[in-house]
């Protein structure tokens, strides 16, 4: 093989190699462009996820704050109810004492009425006897 043929063969091989490198380069450019698009989409997705997370965190914070406020208000209401129940319990006890005292007074009045009724009957009988005695 002489020098000229060798050079032609080498040029032919370099041309094929150059063409193949150009094809690979073109494919790589396409792949890189696709990767850039994918990375851009991923960045957008990550931004959307971060925004969504921030919204969820804000909403969660608001809900926790509302629950906390509700719990504090409920504790105050519960305390007011406990205080009112204690006050009512005291009033009921006082009223029970009053009822017992009134029951005793009523019993005494009843005894007095019974005594007066018996006495009245006795006096009526005595009055009848006196009237008969006067008539005779």
SSE blueprint:
Elements: H1 3-135
The tally of strands reads 0
Q: Which structural class should the secondary elements be placed in?
A: mainly alpha
- The stretches of 5 or more residues where confidence is low (pLDDT under 50) are none
Measured between the Cα atoms of the first and last residue, the distance is 189 Å
Query: Largest beta sheet, briefly?
Result: none
Q: Hey, roughly how much beta strand do the residues contain?
A: under 5%
Strand/helix succession: H
Whole-number average pLDDT? Answer: 93
Number of helices: 1
What Rg, in angstroms, do the CA atoms define?
56 Å
Helix % is over 70%
Describe the structure.
This protein has 136 residues and is an all-alpha fold. The protein is 98% helix and 0% strand. The protein contains one helix and no strands.
Concise account of the structure shown:
The chain has 136 residues and is mainly alpha-helical.
Comma- or semicolon-separated keywords:
mainly alpha, 136 residues, 0% strand
């Amino acid at each position: 093989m002489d020098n000229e043929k060798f050079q032609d063969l080498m040029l032919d091989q370099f041309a094929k190699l150059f063409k193949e490198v150009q094809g690979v380069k073109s494919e790589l450019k396409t792949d890189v462009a696709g990767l850039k698009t994918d990375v851009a989409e991923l960045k957008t997705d990550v931004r959307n996820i971060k925004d969504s997370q921030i919204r969820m965190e804000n909403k969660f914070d608001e809900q926790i704050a509302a629950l906390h406020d509700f719990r504090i208000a409920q504790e105050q209401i519960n305390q007011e109810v406990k205080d009112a129940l204690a006050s009512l319990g005291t009033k009921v006890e006082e009223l029970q004492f009053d009822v017992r005292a009134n029951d005793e007074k009523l019993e005494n009045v009843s005894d007095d009425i019974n005594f007066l009724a018996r006495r009245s009957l006795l006096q009526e009988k005595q009055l009848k006897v006196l009237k008969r005695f006067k008539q005779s």
